[in-house]
């Protein structure tokens, strides 16, 4: 009788030990973070991402500067064009006393 | 030369085009005058100008914004001799309806009104200082003449006369556009605009005193000047209109001293020509 009970306990302990061991193996306690970080492909991708981000910031700054310069130049050219247009529109009148038969008579407005 | 004459903006409008056919161009020109009158008339209660005068501030059409801008610039250029805010002074002098409907004599005293009110144009938004209203009569005709001359120029060399305001485009076969100033003097205009302002054309009586429509913005009353009529020539009809009014208000001595192309008729009957005429 005593021997049966002991065997039963022994079996239960064995099953428990099996599951604990199985859980321990599944958890990969030997796989450390350092191992992940040192993956050269991931590191290369991260470095490339950072480099592209820095480049995009630099390019954006250049584009902004060029756009601002273009807007300043455009404003200058627009002002010059408007001035030229006004000058052109301000026709120098050409008039003289004539002896032609009058086409029309200017009236008091 | 094709010609059409019709009434618009309270005056007689003449269109002359050197072309074989101009009927469609004349129709378009007449429609344009009607459109611009609906924008700038102070006598039509539903015109854009009347709505602006009632509201004080209004988002307006590009035409009205442009004419108001031209008028304000002219006021700055002339030191206030030309002023678009003379509306209430003109009405105070009795010119409160179309000239055709105006009784020749009424028994009430004239009421001078302040002029030179604030006007601000921001894009198409026009604001007028409270207590002032705009009258774009003269400058509006000049603007309309220029606009319509642009339209007619597509058909051929053309002349547009809106009352005293003359705009030309191109040169006719005769070499210049012959515009009679009076019985003895005709001007040949090749380029630019011409306008005549005078105190004799539109007159009426109020409270026993003779009145006219040319307001001196400094007094808010019809101008007292020794000049009866000025015909001025400038780069366009708008500029000529401003110049004619300014020369008339300034008097004969100042008009002669200005030395711009002009014909000046004084109240003692002298005809003075200046500016190389």
Labels describing this entry:
heterodimer, A: 109 residues, mainly alpha, 3 helices, 2 strands, 73% helix, B: 277 residues, alpha+beta
| Tally of individual helices of chain B | 7
Q: What is the overall number of helices of chain A? A: 3
- As residue ranges, the low-confidence spans of chain B are none
Largest sheet features of chain A: none
Nearest-integer average pLDDT of chain A: 84
- Taken from the alpha-carbon principal axes, the silhouette of chain B is globular
State the shape of chain A. rod-shaped
Pattern of helices and strands of chain B: EEHHEHHEEEHEEEEEEEEEEHHEE
* Strand percentage of chain A: 5-15%
Cross-sheet strand order for the largest sheet of chain B: 1-2-7-8-11-16-17-18
Instruction: Give the N-terminus to C-terminus distance of chain B in angstroms.
Output: 27 Å
Q: Oligomeric state of the chains?
A: heterodimer
Explain the overall architecture.
The complex is a heterodimer of chains A (109) and B (277). Chain A is mainly α and 109 residues long. Helices cover 73% and strands 6% of the residues of chain A. Chain A has 3 helices and 2 strands. Chain A has helices spanning 2-26, 33-37, 40-89, and strands at 94-98, 104-105. The longest helix of chain A has 50 residues, at 40-89. Chain A is rod-shaped. With 277 residues, chain B is α+β, with helices and mostly antiparallel strands. Chain B has 7 helices and 18 strands. Chain B has helices spanning 23-40, 48-55, 62-77, 87-92, 137-152, 237-250, 252-258; strands at 2-8, 11-17, 57-59, 105-106, 119-122, 125-128, 158-162, 165-169, 177-182, 185-191, 193-198, 203-206, 209-212, 215-216, 221-222, 227-234, 262-266, 271-274. In chain B, the strands form 5 sheets. Chain B has an 8-stranded antiparallel β-sheet with strand order 1-2-7-8-11-16-17-18. In chain B, strands 3-6-5 form a 3-stranded antiparallel β-sheet, covered by helices on one side. A 3-stranded mixed β-sheet of chain B has the order 4-12-13, with no helix packed on it. In chain B, a hairpin with a 4-residue loop joins strand 17 and strand 18. In chain B, helix 1 packs antiparallel against helix 5 (137-152). The A-B interface holds A 89-109 and B 1, 11-12, 14, 16, 137-138, 141, 159, 161-166, 172, 174, 176-181, 185-198, 200-202, 229, 231, 233-236, 239-241, 261, 273, 277. Strand 1 (94-98) of chain A pairs antiparallel with strand 10 (185-191) of chain B.
């Amino acid at each position: 009788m005593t021997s049966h009970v002991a065997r039963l306990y022994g079996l239960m302990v064995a099953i428990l030990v099996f599951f604990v061991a199985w859980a321990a193996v599944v958890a990969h306690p030997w796989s450390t973070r350092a191992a992940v970080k040192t993956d050269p492909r991931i590191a290369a991708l991260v470095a490339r991402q950072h480099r592209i981000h820095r480049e995009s910031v630099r390019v954006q700054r250049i584009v902004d500067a060029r756009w601002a310069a273009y807007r300043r130049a455009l404003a200058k050219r627009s002002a010059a064009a408007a001035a030229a247009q006004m000058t052109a529109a301000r026709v120098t009148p050409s008039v003289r006393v004539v002896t032609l038969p009058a086409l029309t008579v200017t009236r008091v407005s | 030369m094709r010609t059409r004459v019709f009434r618009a903006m309270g005056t007689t409008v003449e269109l002359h085009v050197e072309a074989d056919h101009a009927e469609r161009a004349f129709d378009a020109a007449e429609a344009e005058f009607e459109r611009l009158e609906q924008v700038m008339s102070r006598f039509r209660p539903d015109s854009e100008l009347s709505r602006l005068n009632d509201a004080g501030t209004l988002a307006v059409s590009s035409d009205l914004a442009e004419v108001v801008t031209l008028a304000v610039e002219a006021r700055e250029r002339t030191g206030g001799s030309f002023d678009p805010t003379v509306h209430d002074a003109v009405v105070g002098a009795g010119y409160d309806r179309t000239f055709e409907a105006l009784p020749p004599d009424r028994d009430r005293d004239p009421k001078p009104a302040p002029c030179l009110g604030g006007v601000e144009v921001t894009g198409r938004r026009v604001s007028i200082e409270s207590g002032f209203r705009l009258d774009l009569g003269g400058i509006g005709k000049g603007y309309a003449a220029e606009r319509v001359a642009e339209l007619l120029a597509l058909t051929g060399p053309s002349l547009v006369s809106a009352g005293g305001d003359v705009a030309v485009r191109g040169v006719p076969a005769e070499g210049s556009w012959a515009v009679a100033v009076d019985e003895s003097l005709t001007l040949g205009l090749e380029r630019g605009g011409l306008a005549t302002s005078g105190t004799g054309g539109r007159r009426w009586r109020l409270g026993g005193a003779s009145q006219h429509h040319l307001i001196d913005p400094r007094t808010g009353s019809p101008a007292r000047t020794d000049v009866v009529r000025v015909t001025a020539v400038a780069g366009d009809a708008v500029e000529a209109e401003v110049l004619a009014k300014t020369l008339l208000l300034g008097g004969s001595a100042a008009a002669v001293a200005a030395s711009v192309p002009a014909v000046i008729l004084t109240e003692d009957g002298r005809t003075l020509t200046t500016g190389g005429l």
